[in-house]
């Protein structure tokens, strides 16, 4: 999502121009620019990234609280 925000900002596009390219409304574009990622489906994010000429990439991680610390990994070994 940050790449989409950066693309809009560095490309000198208005939210309305970017919204037209992405096939969304300007208020939805405003949501994207304010970081409201939970309002967008993964498919929508991928479609917008592709429309911007970006290469979509998804990384899945465990929540921080569930990740082991190095000392815990050594103790478990």
Short note summarizing the structure:
This protein is an all-alpha fold. The protein has one domain: lambda repressor-like DNA-binding domains (434 Repressor (Amino-terminal Domain)), CATH 1.10.260.40. It has helices spanning 2-10, 15-22, 26-33, 42-51, 70-76.
Distance between the termini: 37 Å
SS element count, helices:
5
**Total domain modules:** 1
The CATH architecture classification is Orthogonal Bundle
Rounded Rg: 17 Å
Q: Give average pLDDT, whole number.
A: 89
Q: Please give the number of β-strands.
A: 0
List its salient traits.
mainly alpha, 434 Repressor (Amino-terminal Domain), 5 helices, 77 residues
Describe the 3D structure.
The mean pLDDT is 89. By secondary structure, the chain is an all-alpha fold. It is built from five helices and no strands. It has one domain (1-77): Orthogonal Bundle (434 Repressor (Amino-terminal Domain)).
Please specify the SSE layout and strand pairing.
Elements: H1 2-10, H2 15-22, H3 26-33, H4 42-51, H5 70-76
Helix pairs in contact: 2-3
């Amino acid at each position: 999502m940050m790449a989409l925000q950066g693309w809009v900002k560095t490309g000198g596009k208005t939210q309305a121009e970017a919204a037209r390219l992405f096939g969304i409304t300007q208020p939805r574009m405003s949501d994207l620019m304010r970081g409201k990622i939970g309002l967008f489906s993964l498919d929508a994010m991928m479609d917008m990234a592709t429309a911007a000429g970006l290469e979509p990439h998804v990384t899945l991680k465990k929540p921080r609280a569930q990740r082991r610390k190095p000392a815990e990994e050594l103790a478990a070994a």
